[in-house]
Design a protein that fits this description.
Elements lengths: L7 H10 L3 E3 L11 E3 L1 H20 L4 E3 L8 H7 L1 H4 L1 E6 L6 E3 L28 E4 L2 E4 L9 E4 L4 H6 L1 H7 L6 E10 L14 E11 L4 H18 L7 E5 L11 E8 L6 E11 L1 H10 L5 E3 L4 E3 L2 E8 H12 E4 L8 E4 L10 E5 L6 H12 L5 E3 L5 H10 L4 E5 L3 H4 L1 E6 L5 E5 L3 H9 L2
Parallel strand pairs: 3-9, 19-20, 19-21
Antiparallel strand pairs: 1-2, 4-5, 4-6, 7-8, 9-10, 10-16, 11-12, 12-13, 13-16, 14-15, 17-18, 21-22, 22-23
Helix pairs in contact: 2-9, 3-8
The structure holds adenosine-5'-triphosphate (ATP).
Length: 448
């Protein structure tokens, strides 16, 4: 299948110029694979996280929210198998001193000959692959000794597993039920590049759904479908979304089934995982029982039986979905009757960082005063922007480029009959409506 165009370089530049995403510690030369979200980026990512929270927690009786700590007891990671096994195989090049993931060589470039992958250039001298642990290690307390080593969590899931009974009992939940959380995770990733696709500090939105053994495949299928529907409702194009089933070689030893939701990022990156849906069986709870010597069983009162539930996990990266939403939304198009084209971020209105911008057509005749009055009326309900500088065409372009779905203009007629025009980012159609109707007009257009 032909891949979509590569818009990554253009997006990186737009994101910096318009306050979405900056390189971390840029004035010191940057931190590798770490990024900061600027004023518009933080709104965009927050809107995506809110959509997830609403779909997973607020709208359901059978899922509870959680915000577990980043620092966990180090035994957690032994139980999970990450102290010994959270590793990537790495190769070094003796010629250029570069270090690459052995299983992702095709995604890397030889620093001396960027048209080739490492190992493919005559001068490359790659070593055998060695395992490299991806967890960031630090010390807790005053002493820097091995007894005080703790890790920055490389996934949010374990905070859920260790709280399984706390949540179930305090909220009087019955299996099947789930626990969801959004939080930071850290991995000392070696493969660099591709903007916020793979970063060393990122946010995960994870949900563990606890079910009775034997009902797990049914729930797995249900969650697989529900998660795909969520991505579609976010506005990601159907032709850019695809499932990828983990074959026998890719499946973790404990996993009973696993599918990735993949998104076509365009160019050479193409289809890549944005979310994993996994049937993890009873692996995690059993491991934690064994390592903590605490029972993590569920007591089914109705049928008077005890068991360790199986877990269906849905795990999605907030940053990766943010990148998918940006890539999906970016378009350049010509405008009828104008020489200059426009760049548009066709973001789903519910995730657009600014919902509406308001412009006085001129800086006189009471127009700025009226526009500011409307701004003050609306700003607590919707993130708004006010702009009175430059031609109206330029002001529209500035908003198109950051994905603002509506632009409201106060003109000569407005100050006499209290109406304004509202321009739609995508259709360019303009409605003239009563200024007093703006709140309900926008609310109706922004739902979903
Ligand atoms: P990959 O193979 O791409 O490294 P993974 O299979 O290790 O990913 P999981 O451990 O299943 O990923 O994590 C679930 C989700 O978390 C991924 O689908 C992705 O959206 C997100 N994620 C994982 N690692 C990163 C990262 N380094 N940067 C940004 N997001 C990440």
């Amino acid at each position: 299948m032909a891949s979509q165009p590569d818009v990554m370089d253009k997006l990186v530049s737009l994101c910096k110029r318009r306050g979405f995403i900056f390189q971390s510690s840029e004035i010191y030369g940057g931190t590798g694979s770490v990024w900061d979200y600027g004023p518009l980026g933080v709104e965009l990512k927050k809107n995506i996280k809110d959509r997830w929270w609403n779909a997973m927690v607020r709208s359901r009786d059978d899922i509870e929210g959680l915000d577990a700590a980043i620092l966990m007891h180090p035994r957690t990671w032994e139980a999970r198998g990450h102290v010994a096994g959270f590793v990537d195989p790495l190769v070094d090049c003796k010629t250029c001193k570069g270090r690459f993931r052995a299983d992702k060589l095709e995604d890397a470039r030889c620093p001396q000959k960027p048209s080739k992958q490492p190992g493919a250039h005559d001068a490359c001298q790659l070593t055998e692959a060695r395992n490299f642990n991806l967890m960031f290690k630090t010390y807790m307390g005053a002493l820097e000794e091995s007894a005080s080593i703790v890790y920055l969590r490389p996934e949010t899931a374990q905070g859920i597993f260790v709280n399984f009974l706390n949540v179930q009992q305090s909220m009087r939940q019955k299996v099947p039920f789930g626990i969801a959380q959004i939080g930071k995770a850290f991995r000392n990733e070696i493969t660099q590049g591709n903007f916020i696709f793979r970063t060393r500090e990122f946010e995960q939105m994870e949900m563990q759904f606890f079910v009775e053994p034997g009902t797990d495949m049914e729930w797995f299928e249900q969650w697989k479908q529900l998660r795909m529907e969520w991505h579609l409702a976010l506005g990601l194009s159907p032709e850019r979304l695809q499932f990828h089933q983990h074959g026998a070689g890719e499946l973790a030893h404990y996993a009973r089934a696993a599918f990735d939701v993949t998104f076509d990022f365009g160019g050479t990156l193409g289809f890549q995982e944005i979310e994993g849906v996994h049937n993890r069986g009873d692996f995690d709870l059993t491991q934690h029982q064994q390592f903590s010597s605490k029972k993590l069983e569920y007591y089914d009162q109705l049928n008077n039986k005890r068991y360790v539930p199986y877990v269906i996990e849905t795990s999605v990266g907030a940053d990766r979905v943010t990148l998918a939403a940006l890539v999906n939304a970016y378009r350049e198009e010509s405008v009828e009757g104008e020489d200059e084209g426009r760049v548009v971020l066709g973001l789903h209105p519910s995730i657009a960082p600014i919902k509406a911008a308001i412009f006085p057509l001129t800086k006189k005749d009471g127009q700025p005063e009226m526009a500011k009055g409307i701004l003050n009326d609306l700003r607590m309900a919707f993130p708004m922007d006010y702009d009175e500088s430059g031609s109206i065409g330029k002001r529209y372009r500035r908003q198109d480029e950051v994905g603002t779905p509506f632009c409201i203009t106060v003109d000569g007629q407005s100050t006499t009959d209290q109406t304004v025009t509202v321009r739609d980012r995508d259709t360019l159609a303009q409605d003239r409506i009563d200024a007093s109707q703006l709140k309900s007009y926008l609310a109706a257009k922004l739902v979903g």
